[in-house]
Amino acid sequence: MPGYYDIDDIIMEEEAVSVVFHVGANGVGLLDPGSETNCVEKGAKIDLPFWLSQELCRRRAVSIIVPPCFNQKMKKDVQADAACVDLGTRYPYFYEFGCKIFPLVGDKSIGPFLRHTFASRYKEMLSKSHTASINAIPKFVLRLSKEEYQMFDAAKSSMVEYKKWRVSHLGLTKSSLLGHKRKTDSQLSPSS
Amino acid sequence: MAGQSDPSLSIFSAPEVEFLAEDEMIEIVPNIRMDALNLLCGDFGPFLPQIACKVPLWLAVALKKRGKCSIRTPDWMSVEKLTQVLEAERESPREFQPLPFHYVEISRLLLDHAHDDIPEVYMVRSLIEDIRNVRFHKVESGLETISGRTHAVKLKNLSAMEVNIVRPFMVRVLQAFYKHDSPEMVQQVDTSANKRPQVVDRGPRPAFGKIWYIATAHRTP
Amino acid sequence: MNTTFKNYQFTMLDKIYRSEEEKERALRLNKDRKMAQSQGVTVLTDAIKACSEEIDKYKGKLVVKEGARAEMYARRAAQLLQELSTCEEGQLPPYNSDKFDQVIRECEEHSKQFQSLIREKNSKNLDIEAKNEDHYGSFIHHLSLIRNKRCLMAYVYKRAEVIQSYRWKVGRVLPEEIHDKLNFSEQEYFKNHCAVIDSYTKDLDLDLTVDVIPPKDPYIRVRVLSEIGEVSLGDHSVSLCKDSLHSLRRTDAEPFISQGLMEEFME
After folding, report:
1. What is the pLDDT of residues C60-94, one digit of tens each?
2. pTM over 0.90
3. Total domains present in chain C
4. Which residue of A has its CA nearest to C142?
5. C129 pLDDT exceeds 90?
6. What is the mean pLDDT of residues C169-177?
């Protein structure tokens, strides 16, 4: 369970989902760009951030429409070749989002779908992570979701550290925080 | 001694694992006369020229560096033994041969500081490297078999450094599988689940003997 | 350590209302305005007046919508966290006090809206359990407030965590480029955190911040990288000139090495 201060969790909850209002709400016209008044009308279909949709859905004020990353097309793509699906740029929080949205939309297939997706993608991650060279960033990394990237990075950096230890004496060094030059070339971050 | 690399997962860094390995005992042959050392970790000596005695590896290396002794290469580090181990490793694709728990670190320390005491040192160096590669390849193919319902992975005879390398990745993977496999996520009736023996204790376990369990974190409801 | 963190949060909140910066900015604004007036720049004020008259004319007929500047509720707060998240692990972006203040203002707006909707609802004399449009409107403002609060707390908390780690990685004195990224309360927090560690270290009679890598030998050879000068180490003093080589106690050398003033010398 992510904690209250979990930054990844907070950013993930910023993800937009389409909802249909079952009630009206006054004083929140900003939410609905199509609204002429300062209200959201009953029956309006709008995009809201997940943190808001979730609470409104729990109180049956709105219902959530299954987001595109769990629709039939996506399922077919994963079926065809899971490793090729680009989660990194499109849905960096694919799994976390799936886990949270799944009890709210009543689509029972999402749970097994997430597991299937992860299980099929994990092997490639495994085989590439330990052999990846220290500096080059393989292209496939950009396709990984944030969670997958963290796994890949964990495997890669422990291997890199081991290799360093093998060949040299690891002595004291200057703190990595000092005199830090910003990397101008592709600083890897799957969320960006 | 929490790991420096990632405090949230408390992994050991390679130098930290090496530090732990330095407590292993090893035989030295002193070339000096010296009184016994009464240390926190035990009493060693007295040291007499040409009389072998056992000391912790760190002490052996410290004496060796100052030219006060030679270190006796352990039995398992002989070319003959290592060749046997390498063959056995290649023949059994699923099992790991019993080697000292800290074989990677001990061999590295001895090759670095006492290479003149090791017979056929180049052969030894390359054999150990080969063994480590074969074993690590096995760990990887073992990891490929992880799927849902894996709550703990039993890796008999895996050594400290080997475990340390795979731990960060493995813990995360098991956590992910565990999350996606929780009953809330899989609401379908799965009959095969009841027949399979379940791992009862899901908490992280200590290492007993040479068997390591890399278990998932506790489930939070 | 918990109390320091709490204190830190309090000072943070305090800062929001009564910071020196805020006062300074207000003073500056006032000064600017006076200067503009004294120079007789009235063209601008006339233009503004004309514009507002124009708007007044159409008031009621036209719904003046907030343009692209209107952000989804709590979006700015999430942007604050994005800044932290895209930063490399263990590093901090400069403290974004502008955005932080904007979020606080958004919170005040939510609070105002929330109260007015509740008043509206109460004035309709409905059943206490009844849920009308006012109820859901106020609920959304309430949720947005809570969301904003969570983001701000996480922002402050994460930064506090990184600031704590500086003591272990860099030492008691922060280099300018890091120091400048912290706001005043954070600098105070760092000082207090150092004091806590120092007093604990003193009680233990063991310096916890040295030997982060298991030591091999009590002494190491070092090369001095920049002029340090006369330093007293335990019972003797050494003159650490640039490019000179020394054999020092590892624990003595470690702070200098982590600050980049000397390096371990290996043959």
Report:
1. 444 444 434 578 999 999 999 999 999 888 889 99
2. no
3. 2
4. A52
5. no
6. 86
Residue A191 has pLDDT above 60, yes or no: no
**Chain C contacts of B16, Cβ < 8 Å?**
214
Backbone phi, then psi, for C245, in 5-degree steps?
-105, 140
Task: Say yes or no for a CB contact (<8 Å) between B184 and A103.
Answer: yes
What is the predicted pLDDT for the residue at A55? 94
Q: Name the nearest CA neighbour of A132 among A116, A107, A153.
A: A153
Domains of chain A: 1-65 (3.40.5.50), 68-166 (1.20.58.2050)
pLDDT at A167: 80
CB contact under 8 A, C213 and B15: yes
Cβ-Cβ contacts under 8 Å for B13 (sequence gap 6 or more): A161, B3, B4, B5, C213
From chain B, the residues in CB contact with C214 under 8 A are: 1, 15-16, 18-19
For residue B142, what are the contacts with CB-CB under 8 A and spacing of at least 6?
B94, B153, B155
Residue A140 Cα distances to A148, A168, B143, angstroms: 11, 30, 20
B6, B9, B14 ranked by CB distance to A165: nearest = B14
Say whether pLDDT at C199 is over 80: yes
C236 and C194 inside one domain: no
Q: C47 and C140: one domain?
A: yes
Structure tokens that stand for A87 in this block: 């989660």
CB atoms within 10 A of CB C30: 10
Question: How high is the ipTM of this complex?
Answer: 0.83
**What single DSSP character describes residue A181?**
P
Nearest to A11 among C82, C120, C250 (CB): C82
Q: What is the mean pLDDT of residues C135-146?
A: 94
Instruction: Name every chain A residue with its beta carbon within 8 A of the beta carbon of B166.
Output: 155, 158
Please say if the pLDDT value at position A43 is more than 60: yes
Contact criterion met (CB < 8 Å) for A158 and B188: no
- Residues of chain B with C-beta less than 8 angstroms from the C-beta of C213: 4, 13, 15
